[in-house]
């Protein structure tokens, strides 16, 4: 069966020419219609209050999608709550981490992210087990992410902030399409809700991810093109292989589904804390420039402190020398009056000699008188 027109249950890529679907359009002349089969609806703040969750009481937030970021900050605004600048943000991928820039000053916050899978993020989180984690998510009772967090024995609080609601697809005439590409169980539910007899229609069904495959099986719908596989890691490649008549190989776990298989490798708690990861080259370059400027400022501050210390030391030495000099002058002033006193007493000595001379003269004058009397 030839495929010329496909209904894809996802929003259109921002740049179709750079997307994996480019070959289907240019090489195989396939007409693609993009339409998201469900919509994400925020849970009202009145419903969220019933959970008695106070966001300000938590020290770390886990984000696994852009929807979780959007609705977390929406809820913050509606609750009129604020978060500390010391809040830590843990994102499952780099793209999600960069999306945070829409709401916070990225370079001034503590942002961490995994390399590719959610299990990579769990390894980073294991170095911060002392934190109090909040996990904004959908209202589903349990997901592969909550299972992974439970299995890794993290202490966290699930905070339902949004829900997925099926869209009405009856505006599409399925007879005009050769294939439908599905990517999630909610997409399957939307399709079945709008077209209850879909399993009886002669249309090719392509599905991505084992959870989507299971949802199709539950509804009794035949799966023709399964992805991802070793030879076709994307939906576009799987469809292209089908068009070219290539035999389909075995299905592999998708990125999200690899979480539960790799959680067992999560690193245990460690005392060494991970450093915040720089999300892109521009931010890294800016951070390096800031560090260089800070280092230069510290060097200048230390040089200024040394100069100040040397100046104070020289000043102290000068003050000490001045004090010694002053002491010498004071000592000289104290010693001078002794010399003056000796000079003042000298006349007294002279006066004494005069008096002695007078006495001697008197004595000499008396002696002849005595002799005369004797005669």
Walk me through this protein's architecture.
- The structure is a single chain.
- The protein is of the alpha/beta class and 375 residues long.
- Among the domains are: 5-37 and 167-248, Rossmann fold (3-Layer(aba) Sandwich), CATH 3.40.50.10090; 41-166 and 270-279, 3-Layer(aba) Sandwich (Rossmann fold), CATH 3.40.50.
- It contains eleven helices and eleven strands.
- The chain has helices spanning 22-26, 45-49, 66-79, 94-99, 118-125, 144-151, 185-194, 210-219, 235-243, 258-262, 281-374; strands at residues 5-8, 31-34, 38-42, 60-63, 88-91, 110-113, 133-138, 156-166, 179-182, 204-208, 225-227.
- The strands form two sheets. It has a six-stranded mixed beta sheet with strand order 3-8-7-4-5-6. A five-stranded parallel beta sheet has the order 2-1-9-10-11, with helices on both faces.
- α6 (144-151) links the parallel β7 and β8.
- α7 (185-194) runs parallel beside α8 (210-219).
- The longest helix has 94 residues, at 281-374.
- It is elongated.
- Residues 258-279 have low confidence and may be disordered.
Topology:
Elements: E1 5-8, H1 22-26, E2 31-34, E3 38-42, H2 45-49, E4 60-63, H3 66-79, E5 88-91, H4 94-99, E6 110-113, H5 118-125, E7 133-138, H6 144-151, E8 156-166, E9 179-182, H7 185-194, E10 204-208, H8 210-219, E11 225-227, H9 235-243, H10 258-262, H11 281-374
Parallel strand pairs: 1-2, 1-9, 4-5, 4-7, 5-6, 7-8, 9-10, 10-11
Antiparallel strand pairs: 3-8
